[in-house]
Amino acid sequence: MKLALPAAPTVAVPVAGTDLSFPVRRIYCVGRNYAAHAREMGFDPDREPPFFFCKPTDAVVYVAPGAIGEFPYPSETGNCHYEMELVAAIGKGGRDFSADDALEHVYGYALGLDMTRRDLQMKMREMGRPWDIGKAFDHSAPIGPIHRAADVGHPAKGAIWLEVNGATRQKADLADLIWSVGETVAYLSKFFELAPGDLIYTGTPEGVGAVVKGDRIRGGIESLGEFEVVVV
């Protein structure tokens, strides 16, 4: 096949403790998957079915352990928010599988940030329009290395936290997820055929807030370590 234009480079995230990289195919994100966050966004946290939005693959910004990643402050917003999340990486594809079988499809886990143009997201929500310009912009998916489930298991509990300039902003436990990773992956598989390389951002706890240029965002999840990003 002869291409009319050069193909975009493969987006890949290093796998912790190996010389391997995980090629990213799609990025799915779960909305309002912690009850306290649902309340702070003005919604009832009753256990309704999860909903999803997507980010483009090249929104990934890899943040290496011990390094400080850079998040360029996005254009056309005056209210850009952080959202600390557990990311599940799919290693085995499939469609319409059960929650009991779902974790067999998960290759590993990573730290992630779902960066959000909150003002644009809210404006689109009020107008009944898609959230894309609020969620799916360039550099909006910082991520740490992927830790293989074979090494760390499948985290179902443990602290998830985030600080801005040393002040704690988010602090919760993975056990607070409304829909567990297995339930989320299984439900998503009813609507999309999942494939190796898919990433699923599983939702953020309460305490989301705005950042400005120069802010340092530091977050972590028990068993997966921590990472740091500076807003530039």
From TrEMBL:
Its keywords, alphabetically, are: Hydrolase, Metal-binding
Query: What range does the record give for the signal peptide?
Result: none
Recall the GO molecular function terms of this protein's record: hydrolase activity
Keyword Hydrolase attached? yes
**Where does the record place the Fumarylacetoacetase-like C-terminal domain?**
27-231
SUPFAM superfamilies in alphabetical order: FAH
Give one Pfam hit by family name.
FAA_hydrolase
**PANTHER family, from UniProt?**
ACYLPYRUVASE, FLUTATHIONE S-TRANSFERASE
Q: What is this protein called?
A: Fumarylacetoacetate hydrolase family protein
Q: Which organism is it from?
A: Rhodanobacter lycopersici
Ranked from the top, the taxonomy reads: Bacteria, Pseudomonadati, Pseudomonadota, Gammaproteobacteria, Lysobacterales
